[in-house]
Amino acid sequence: MIVGIGVDLVDVPRFVRSIDRTPGLVERLFAEGERGRAPRSLAARFAAKEALIKALGDSSGFRWHDMEVVTDDDGKPSFLLGGQVAETARARGVGAIHLSLSHDGDSAFAFVIAERAEQSGSAAR
């Protein structure tokens, strides 16, 4: 069962202007493992974090570093959650988070589905 869905779109040139204008923004928004990527890739990761907040329905106490976007060996993105973000996901019964990222031209896009954990022993209705 779906707990929440989140979508976010980032204008890449605007995002680049923001990180150029504000020293330290990349370090504030992204965990160490996310840094050093191309600006459009960072923009997509920022969109992913915003989409996750929307899917979970609340951002109280969230820290940007507690939502790290990682990729597996095949390039599939996913989240590593920590702190209040992980606690909120657990409290809402989230067992899986599905993430899709895309960027084309001047846009970076993320789509997140938060799915409820399956409960063992429950019958299908």
Automatic annotation (TrEMBL):
Q: Which residues form the 4'-phosphopantetheinyl transferase domain?
A: 4-86
Q: Could you tell me the Gene Ontology terms of the biological process aspect for this record?
A: fatty acid biosynthetic process
Cofactor(s) this protein requires = Mg(2+)
Top-rank lineage group of the source organism: Bacteria
- Per the UniProt entry, the Enzyme Commission number(s) are 2.7.8.7
Q: Which UniProt keywords apply?
A: Cytoplasm, Fatty acid biosynthesis, Fatty acid metabolism, Lipid biosynthesis, Lipid metabolism, Magnesium, Metal-binding, Transferase
GO cellular component, alphabetical, reads:
cytoplasm
Residues annotated as binding Mg(2+) are 8, 50
One of the Pfam families matching this protein, by short name? ACPS
Signal sequence region: none
UniProt-listed InterPro entries: 4-PPantetheinyl_Trfase_dom, 4-PPantetheinyl_Trfase_dom_sf, ACPS, Ppantetheine-prot_Trfase_dom
Q: Write down the chemical reaction(s) this protein catalyses.
A: apo-[ACP] + CoA = holo-[ACP] + adenosine 3',5'-bisphosphate + H(+)
What sort of enzyme, by top EC class, is this? transferase
Question: Any idea which GO molecular function terms this record carries?
Answer: holo-[acyl-carrier-protein] synthase activity; magnesium ion binding
Q: Where in the cell is it found?
A: Cytoplasm
* Record family assignment: Belongs to the P-Pant transferase superfamily. AcpS family.
**What does it do?**
Transfers the 4'-phosphopantetheine moiety from coenzyme A to a Ser of acyl-carrier-protein.
Return the protein name.
Holo-[acyl-carrier-protein] synthase
The organism is Agreia pratensis
